[in-house]
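Annex B, item 7. Sequence and structure tokens for protein A, then protein B.
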Amino acid sequence: MTTLLDPLRHPGFIALRNRTVMSAMSRGFAGEGHHATPAMADYYQRRADGGVGLILTEGTLVHESGDGWNNAPYIATDAHAESWKPVVGAVHRSGAAIACQLWHTGRISHTDYTVVQPVSSTNVAAVGVNRQNGKPYGEPRALTPEEMPIIYGYFADAARRSIDIAGFDAVELHVGHGYLADQFLDARVNDRTDRYGGSVENRCRFALELVEAVLQAVPAERVIARISPSRSMGSIYDWPDLEEMIAYFIPALQDLGLVALDVSCANSNYFDTAGRIVRMVRPLWNGVLLGGASLTAEEANTELDAGLLDAVTWGRAFIANPDLVAKIERDTGWIPFADAMRETLV
């Protein structure tokens, strides 16, 4: 039986000491100039000390035009990458692997963060209020096809910095949760009439070209892509044309040489959202598949043993339980996130 505590040794992907993964969760703890800090190193090292196999960092911005979060870290310059080296070193000394999540928020932003007008697949502003500054989302400017390689370059350069300078084991491309790449994938947002909008193939084009650019910059074994075709937004929110999108997009990612895929459902029930997607993806995907979020250890082991997942992600459980893996190993139970929120989370 395959379990959470078994090592992950998958051809073409980094080796992990076990199959537990700390999800990427934005925190806003960066220091002056959006640099990583000693407090961040301590935070991630505690989870590594607790036994986690792989840590996915908080969203880390590839360029200031993609910012949309108070005090988010950047990896937009070599100096930013240098600031991450102590974080990576601390995690490695405690035996875990760590991947930098590369992020561009697109229209889920405001000029308070981007200075210039936010960019997106569309010129229509997102509905609602940016919780970071309490203001309505800014009106975006639709990227022109000529500008898209510039965006891909931001990600490719950030990937190189992450691995060559900071020493990360891998990078995770954020292609979900309504951020820039997802704004092309989602037909409710993408209202373009050019080769990047309309059909399923066209709506997938931006994300596929982005992944291709990063795979040309760094080894494929060091790249993960996060997608969220189904998540909770008050109710279950699926991509339009969901089955057709999955049937085209997943094989296309594999054809590019991508090896690892993270099916994320954010703060929602796995079986209602990501679990449905995993069951659609698995027959089309022979690479590493990550997912989870809300699973118990027993449910996680069942998904692993069935071959549906190769590693299991948790977010809030790792916030509340830095030693989550040790607790799984001892079978002692977890502190619920809601209970931990009553105290200072470190």
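Protein B:
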Amino acid sequence: MVLANCRGRWHGKFLPAASKIAGCLPDTRYWLTMLLLSVACAAMAQQAAANFAVAAPVINMYAHPDSESEVVSQAIYGTTVPAIERRGSWLNIRTADGYTGWVAASGLRAVGGGSYAPEGRSVHVTALGANLYRDPDVTHRAPLLQLPWEARLELVSSHADDSARWLQVRLVDGETAWVQQGDVSAQFKPLTIPEMLKLARRFLGITYTWGGISSFGFDCSGFTQMLERQRGIVMPRDTDLQAAWSGAAPVGRKDLKPGDLLFFGSSSARITHTGMYLGDGEFIHDTTFGHPGVQISRLDDTPWTKLLVAARRIQ
């Protein structure tokens, strides 16, 4: 079932049939038929506009509607995503960076034409992991959810407890929960490059996860994309696309400055890894080399010194 491009289905499927009808039916019946087709198309367009909110802490986005296919990226709790297509229990979604992939429909909740946690009524997780509870207490019950960095939550009207330590939030499924104020923020202030590099070190030791974009596990390009997002910059998701992105300018190795992006591979035409320069010959990256996870390496060390094929500076 296609959730978008109604015009394509109209021209590709319905018009030939309508042309045949026009040749053999009276005008009234012809225009009634066309009216019904218009209504059907409008209904499809309305369905295409329907948004969904991610209802699990992190969901995998697959290359095909099959959990055995490659994980291409992920989506995080509370983010609103439009659906492009449905196949059985799978939806093809598009994230804010333009990335598309198939997700299990069970990991989403429909929010109609609106969004979950709209501006002015939302907070985002600023801890590497935040527990949500049924009551404003950490001892009464086990956490309902543990959410990663950047997950979004919608505040309810009477959102603070008496001590102002807790905020009450509405979950994607409509239930309410409590989160500690120290784990979230309602503000977003773009970071400077030094602030971004300081933040990057908070993620040291976070495991490597192919396709990962969250504090539960990044891949190399998901990590650098997340860091740049804290500066208010949205850049492409994949390493090769980041290297080719028009928003970044080439920079020579001898001219590197903290915050520059480094790209590694067998050649400039085959880039497979990325990291961020810290200064003094060091860079931070999420890699499987040595021990999987976010770590700091030296640019002059093997294998990195021979694999560096490009560097970019965000303009």
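Comment on protein B: The first strand starts at residue 51 and ends at 54.
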